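User: Hey, quick favor. My workstation is busy. Could you predict this chain's structure for me?
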Amino acid sequence: MMQAMFGHSYLFGGNAPFIEELYEQYLADPSSTPDQWREYFDKLSLAPGAAERDVPHLPIQQSFIQLTKKPVAGQRVSAVGDWESMQKQVAVLKLISAYRVLGSRHANLDPLKRMDQVQLRELDPATHGLTDADMALQFNIGSMIGPQQLPLSEILARLKQTYCGNIGVEYMHVTQTEEKRWVQRRFEGDLSTPHYDAQSKRRILKQITAAETLERYLHTRYVGQKRFSLEGGESMIAALDHLIQNATAQGVQELIIGMAHRGRLNVLVNTLGKLPRDLFAEFEGKPAKELASGDVKYHMGFSSDIPTPNGPMHVSLAFNPSHLEIVNPVVEGSVRARQQRRKDGERKTVVPVLLHGDSAFGGLGVNQGTFNLSQTRGYGTGGTIHIVINNQVGFTTSDTRDIRSTSYCTDVAKMIEAPIFHVNGDDPEAVCYVMQAALDYRMTFNKDVVIDLVCFRKLGHNEGDDPYLTQPMMYKKIAKHPGSRALYAERLVGEGVMSAEEGQALIQAYRDALDKGEHVEQTVLTNYRREFAVDWTPFMGTDWAHPTDTSLPLADIQRLTEKFTQVPEGFKLHNTVDRVVKGRIAMAAGEQPVDWGMAETLAYASLVESGYGVRISGEDSGRGTFSHRHAVFHDQNREKWDDGSYVPLRHMSENQGDFLVIDSILNEEAVLAYEYGYACNSPDQLVIWEAQFGDFANGAQVAIDQFIASGETKWGRLCGLTTILPHGYDGQGPEHSSARLERWLQLCAEHNMQIVMPSEASQMFHVLRRQMLRPFRKPLVIFLSKRLLRFKDSMSAIEDCSNGSFRAVIGDNAMADPKKVKRVLLCAGQVYYDLVAGRKERELEQDVAIVRIEQLYPFPTEQVAAELARFPKASEVVWVQEEPKNQGAWYQLRHRLEDLMGAKQTLSYAARPSSASPAVGYMSKHVAQLKAFVEEALSFGK
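Assistant: No problem, here it is.
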């Protein structure tokens, strides 16, 4: 069999791709290959030094059959001799593959050289049956970049220089051949060796000189103050400068940066051009702009326009709290909004750049969520450049066994097959080289790429921390390290690029400028106006009570309904959706009351036709978790990806605003933070995040606390994000009842948010339109009742949409004589209907008034006072809620209501008993509690 194979030259020429595919198939599953080929590959695996089975790698697939030259016509091939050379050739290809997979483990990455490298037998030629005698032999290098044949010694030298120098490359986990080949051509073609001219080298030195000198200047001028020094990772500043100066050549016009604390002040001054004097003022407690609360200096953001050889680059550093990586999805949302504004479908003009800490990158789950968003339709931004400032220490932990369970902190990025470029921070040229490679990869493939900048942290976690307490040996090494600037300056002197005196002059020039509070040179454009900048001035200084007509003429309602109920010809609707569509036609005609799904759809249709964009995301937003929205129609006879879906709200008018509804990934934290970032850059779009159940927002509490609730008071950032939280006690247990209303209200102050709990469908229509039509951009939180979506009493007449506006308070007009009312019940949400039913059952319509407070914050004090004034004889006012007493709105509204009580009035409450759980899990107990607090609310004299 074997002789027959060789005799027929199956191993040569045009059969190569076929045999390569067979080989990779064999490596994945030997039983799947034909018997004759399995026998042949089995014999290869039994060759000396090949005891361990290979793993399927595409480089082997691409180069396997380039093992010997094609025989000359008529020449016989020696099966024995060819078999031996075949074994050696395969061994060489395996060695090349091993370096591609594992070479980074032997790379010179650690500036401190603390850890002994583990010798990997896979990188030893002897493991593959290659000996010293083979070093002078010529071998085909397969898909490796370089001459077709080289001596084994030269192959080995090239592999070590490419994969085991100051750069270590991980890319073999990438399954797309084109992307993998691109990385190979880039690094193997250059042997991972940068080649910069003298001018570029001087600029690199100038950048890291600025980075180091600023840190040392601040260390002596502001002794003991926190700044989270960059010392040990100064090459990052050179890399960012390289990125900014070179990205415009590829059409990039904006870079949006997200980063935590480490080196942030350095980036502000040396990258974005913030004046040192302004930074000094912040150190001295005198910020340039007074905000309601403000924030510490190493949380602040900044934007500037920087000149480059190919035009201005707008660079923006996002504001970020101490929750480190939470800024990452915020940046991604901001980038997507900016791309949308530019109508950049290729996602080339605005690029996100995220700087991470080593422990935070792999340890905080929001990065997993953000990576998961990166290639989805509704969230993709065309790829992110990630830079990990790898200090090799997590906060105060020095043992990697306590930091992570993976070999590298960057391994989390492999989930999306991002290539990872590890680089020694003491080699700033290599750092700039991999930055260029990362930029080119991102712009070529529109995918994420990661730079692992291996450096160290000269000081402790902050300037008041003593790192010797936990890392004594590491910091003994650091104390002896001269710094990357000194090492690079010495290198340039040795190369004849500059003199030692010139290097010292750079330090002095920078210090002299700092003494004046200035920059060494002009780094930003001062009078440049960007074409796509957002003007927020129309929303400054406005009030939530700004009068706004949100009604929609009946003719417009019917015209819009006709459009969003149209179904393409030949499109088969599900029977349920067909009934919904026909029902909406009847609602617009006034034949049926308007339900909540119709109210929402009408609001969206009217907004997009007026030119506003609408963006809705959530885990079931297209259909709606409770199957009420149906914004996307699905053809029952075709798959989604075969034009089997249709979105009616994208077909309202020729020049309409964008409408996008997204079924998001299952990660509330990343998605909500993303939508916040998007909304912060899109005042002309209704941006909505919808929780599948209201309490699921708990998983995004950091985004709520640090951005939504406090972004304006800390950083002056306006945001019109709308959040819809299904909320309501229907006996569905602790996790599906409460959206934690009390938490949201506790976060309310300084008119920072709007909290509403509507009880009628038309209220939903008006509040959504109000959010855009009113010149006011604050977060809107809607506590939406699940039960009311199909509850007939909560539906509205079509006239309620063609007239009126959102009512912060809905009074009670059921009684004949308001002056006879003895008790007033105040409530919010669906509990109103339970109280109405209880009142009717007890025949108390003339004794008890029920007032709905639809907007809980900002509290509508005047409207509530006016409504209470209608009942002068009411001596009892009761706040009624379906949440337990220690939850819900009671404790947050109590003081506001007490201020409205008359001299002879008392205020009390009726609610479920205080509980550690948001709700009970037993239906019988739920019903009993409901009956009890309704009875309490309607019983006099108690």
